[in-house]
Specification:
Length: 119
């Protein structure tokens, strides 16, 4: 059973930093993409940053230059370093693992961690 457990969220002032962690377990398949999404109240869940199986990273335009995604394969953990945080970064952040099965994406999600940035 796949489990993704996020941690590291919290309350921070604008301009501050946080590092989110996602510990993955129960994964018995090759991961195609692993990444972070976020969802603010009343809005849809949007991608923040991803790493694919080739190590290529991708970022939402709104976080480029401020956020960095990285992974520690030995610990089955993916991180999101968030710097220069802004109030608009406030959201629940979710870890995501995606595998492609016969061309169809299968997604696994963590429970989410709240990030609140005060102005």
């Amino acid at each position: 059973q796949v489990q993704l457990v996020e941690s590291g969220g919290g309350l921070v002032q604008a301009g501050g930093s946080l590092r989110l962690s996602c510990a993955a377990s129960g994964i018995t398949f090759s991961i195609d993409v692993i990444g972070w999404y976020r969802q603010a109240p009343g809005k849809q869940r949007d991608v923040v940053a991803t790493i694919n199986s080739g190590g290529i990273t991708n970022y939402a335009d709104s976080v480029k230059g401020r956020f960095t995604i990285s992974e520690d394969n030995a610990r089955n953990t993916v991180y999101l370093q968030m710097n220069s945080l802004k109030p608009e970064d406030t959201a629940v952040y979710y870890c995501n693992v995606r595998r492609m099965r016969w061309g169809i994406p299968v997604d696994y999600w963590g429970q989410g961690t709240q990030v609140t940035v005060s102005s």
